[in-house]
């Protein structure tokens, strides 16, 4: 069973103030309201970029013409809608904040946010990562863009990680990041895919290296995401 939390999408608009400093929160339907020409943006790390699959390996081969197996490309093919891949290897939540103008320039109706893994590995405090994610969510909401969170960590990940893996030195932090993302989903009323690595992590045939899936692994990741968001996508009339 895919580990997914289903919540209504509540888009927060800073339309004014009610007494103190708290903005008025405008409730929206759980379905995305689309205009012709809008897109889905996927803001994330190398996991969104698709590193480890097809042509997306070091050293880069400019003559490589293999199909793109990143989850945004596969999701775009499934939905028959433009999904803009804004994944950058090494990106942190702070980088996500700095790329908001670029993301909004694609006129998105929906943003898939996969950030936090590099913050964990770079020892960014959970408080700082959370503050950056709040800034990203609130900025998208001010522009009327729905947000979905994609969680990279999960207790099952720890259970399936080899003892010599670097993640074993950050078990407590990884679990705190997992809880933090879940709590943000509750706080802002966001759908969240609770574990994008489900049925992938540390299965040798699906991993490119110690942290990235291979092409087959990304196929499974896209299935995790699409399956996890099935009700949300159906409500938005995005499933063919």
Q: CATH homologous superfamily name?
A: SGNH hydrolase
Unreliable parts = 1-29
Q: What is the share of helical residues?
A: 25-40%
- Give the N-terminus to C-terminus distance in angstroms: 23 Å
Helix and strand pattern: EEHHEHHEHHEHHEHH
Largest sheet: 6 strands, mixed
Protein described:
By secondary structure, the protein is of the alpha/beta class. It has a single domain (4-235), classed as SGNH hydrolase (Rossmann fold), CATH 3.40.50. 37% of the residues lie in helices and 11% in strands. It has 10 helices and 6 strands. The protein has a 6-stranded mixed sheet, with helices on both faces. Helix 2 (71-79) packs across helix 9 (215-228) and helix 6 packs parallel to helix 8. The chain is globular and about 50 Å long. 41% of the residues are buried.
What layout of secondary structure does this protein have?
Elements: E1 4-5, E2 39-44, H1 46-49, H2 71-79, E3 83-87, H3 93-98, H4 100-104, E4 108-114, H5 117-121, H6 126-142, E5 146-150, H7 155-159, H8 171-188, E6 192-193, H9 215-228, H10 230-235
Parallel strand pairs: 2-3, 2-4, 4-5, 5-6
Antiparallel strand pairs: 1-6
Structure described in brief:
The chain is α/β, with parallel strands linked by helices and 240 residues long.
Essential attributes:
10 helices; 240 residues; Rossmann fold; single chain; alpha/beta
């Amino acid at each position: 069973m895919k580990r997914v939390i289903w919540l209504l999408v509540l888009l927060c608009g800073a339309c004014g103030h009610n007494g103190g400093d708290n903005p008025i929160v405008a409730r929206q339907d759980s379905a995305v309201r689309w205009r012709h020409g809008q897109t889905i943006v996927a803001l994330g790390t190398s996991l969104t970029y698709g590193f480890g699959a097809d042509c997306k390996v070091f050293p880069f081969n400019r003559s490589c013409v293999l199909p793109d197996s990143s989850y945004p490309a596969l999701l775009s093919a499934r939905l028959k809608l433009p999904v803009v891949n804004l994944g950058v290897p090494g990106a942190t939540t702070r980088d996500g904040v700095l790329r908001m103008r670029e993301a909004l320039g694609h006129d998105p109706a929906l943003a898939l946010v996969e950030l936090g893994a590099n913050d964990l590995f770079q020892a960014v405090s959970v408080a700082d990562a959370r503050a950056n994610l709040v800034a990203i969510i609130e900025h998208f909401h001010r522009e009327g863009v729905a947000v979905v969170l994609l969680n990279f960590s999960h207790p099952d990940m720890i259970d399936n990680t080899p003892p010599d893996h670097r993640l074993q030195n950050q078990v407590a932090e990884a679990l705190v990041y997992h809880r933090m993302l879940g709590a943000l989903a509750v706080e802002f009323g966001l759908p969240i895919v609770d574990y994008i690595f489900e049925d992938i992590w540390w299965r040798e045939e699906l991993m490119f290296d110690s942290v990235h899936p291979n092409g087959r692994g990304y196929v499974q990741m896209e299935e995790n995401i699409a399956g996890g968001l099935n009700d949300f996508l159906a409500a938005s009339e995005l499933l063919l």
